[in-house]
Design brief:
By secondary structure, the protein is of the alpha/beta class. The chain is built from 12 helices and 18 strands. Strand 2 and strand 3 (about 100-105) form a beta hairpin. The radius of gyration is 24 Å and the shape is globular.
């Protein structure tokens, strides 16, 4: 383990070195804006927060100065997205043993709860471990019990929706899902920032069965006295082996305080008109999400979740693409969109799709930027939607002379294709794309990507001064800039293939 950490440290230092030699002027301009947007002064850009408003105003000012036209509400560059928030403001959890003793579980560190309207202020329940929580495993009467479920993300076993449906149908009073520590494609990380559920205003408020999420390190405390080894359960579950079902002698106790509010969060929309009148109804959208996690539970003394590469750096890139045009359009019109609410469920993109400030039929393509981590030289890109639309052929034509391999998603169990702002468009038949830095299985690049996911993803450590590969970032920015031009100037409108 020490050897691997040393290798990763050396790798990080190697990739940080190009910054000392000095990046080119365009990369410096991009990096400066990315660092400004992810600075502590922006407070992590949580949807609807003052920091988010400052970041949005800065982006709007830059786009206006670049000569783009307002495409937001009432002749402005901003579109208001109405939202409803339910937050667990305080929580106490205990595992109560038959002898009367109690073991506390720390909120956001050992356990969390899905914020929902109608959550009971207090719970005191017996528990039963129900394996993967398939319908077959829940055959024993569960009425009045908390079902403990192994939260697998492996193909061929019940996913989150199937687990919830089965537990609800069983008559259980609550569900406790244990993270799978063996899912190394995207390991679970704790503590969590907070327990909040944000929906679009007017959408059904979250309600239903109380749902809890457990840090696997706390499983032993939850099932103490059952005679079962937590380590064995976690290992077997990670390997998709059959899991025993058993009652737990302890009881699960929770006390919750809930608040809710309605608010609006603004996203930035700016139009660069096209030069070909015949293509005026074929708009190309380039997008990234301007929101982040904001302030949350402190990690290593830092409570601001800056979101440098999730997604400030790529809001900066779409701004820089607009600024480089100096008011000169492509053949097709270009809509620059800095969506809000992505971290809360792709809310801004969904709202725009339902309430577009341009005719929906005129949206020819959405070229989204998210999930990009320039941690190593750019040799290959994963493209979501690669085979679904004609955008794949355009991307391939751009990457080929750059000697960048273009690949389909090789990790479908992560469901990344459905977790970024291109998805609402692609899923409704609008050609859309999203990219990731790709790596080979077992490579040092993969180790570095996994390490970033554990130490920085959705954590305060995704900050403006973290090490990254400057050349890799530069090369991706050059690729995407050329890709935007190729799509916006293509002789034929992008189309769905399947």
């Amino acid at each position: 383990m020490a050897g691997m950490r040393a290798a990763l440290l050396a790798f990080c230092l190697t990739f940080a070195a190009p910054a000392l030699a000095g990046p080119d002027a365009e990369t410096r301009a991009w990096l400066s804006l990315a660092r400004t947007l992810s600075d502590d002064s922006m407070e992590g850009r949580d949807s609807g927060s003052p920091g988010h408003a400052r970041a949005s105003a800065l982006v709007a000012q830059r786009l206006e100065k670049a000569g783009l036209k307002p495409a937001g509400d009432n002749g402005s560059f901003l579109q208001a997205v109405p939202m409803h928030d339910v937050t667990v403001t305080a929580a106490e959890f205990e595992v109560r043993e038959p002898d009367g003793s109690a073991v506390p579980l720390r909120f956001l560190h050992d356990i969390s709860v899905r914020a929902a309207s109608g959550l009971p202020a207090a719970l005191d329940l017996p528990m039963r471990f129900a394996g993967y929580c398939s319908a077959a495993e829940l055959g024993v009467a569960m009425a009045g019990k908390a079902a403990i479920c192994f939260g697998t993300r492996r193909a061929g076993l019940p996913g989150a929706a199937a687990r919830l449906a089965a537990v609800t149908a069983s008559g259980a009073a609550a569900m406790i899902t244990v993270d799978d520590p063996g899912f190394n494609l995207e390991p679970p990380t704790w503590p969590l920032a907070y327990a909040r559920t944000v929906t679009l205003a007017g959408s059904p408020h979250p309600s239903g069965l109380p749902q809890f999420r457990l840090n696997p390190a706390s499983l032993a405390s939850l099932i103490a006295g059952s005679g079962r080894l937590a380590a064995a359960i976690l290992t077997d579950g990670g390997l998709k082996r059959p899991l025993d079902n058993f009652d737990v002698p302890a009881r699960f106790s929770a006390r919750l305080s809930i608040s809710s509010r309605d608010f609006a969060s603004e996203q930035v929309l700016a139009l660069l008109p096209g030069t070909n009148p015949a293509l005026k109804d074929q708009m190309v959208v380039i997008s990234a999400h301007i929101d982040g996690f904001g302030r949350g539970e402190a990690v290593a003394g830092d409570a601001i979740y800056n979101g440098m590469f999730d997604d400030a750096a790529y809001v900066a890139l779409i701004v820089r693409i607009a600024e480089q045009r100096r008011g000169k359009g492509f053949a097709r019109p270009l809509l620059v969109a800095a969506f809000t609410g992505e971290e809360k469920g792709l809310l801004g993109a969904r709202w725009f799709l339902e309430h577009p400030n341009v005719p929906r039929a005129s949206i020819a393509a959405v070229l989204n930027l998210d999930q990009l981590r320039p941690l190593f030289p750019l040799k290959a890109l994963t493209m979501h939607g690669l085979s679904n639309t004609s955008l794949g052929a355009i991307a391939a034509a751009v990457t080929k002379p750059m000697k960048i391999a273009l690949r389909p998603d090789k990790e479908p169990e992560r469901a990344l294709n459905t977790r970024a702002d291109h998805w609402p468009f692609l899923s409704t038949g609008i050609p859309a794309s999203n990219f990731l830095f790709a790596y080979d299985s077992g490579s040092l690049e993969e180790k570095l990507a996994r390490d970033w996911a554990v130490r920085r993803y959705h954590r305060p450590q995704d900050g403006p001064d973290q090490p990254f590969d400057m050349d890799g970032a530069r090369d991706f920015n050059r690729f995407f800039t050329a890709y935007v031009a190729a799509v916006a100037n293509a002789p034929e409108r992008p189309k769905m293939l399947k």
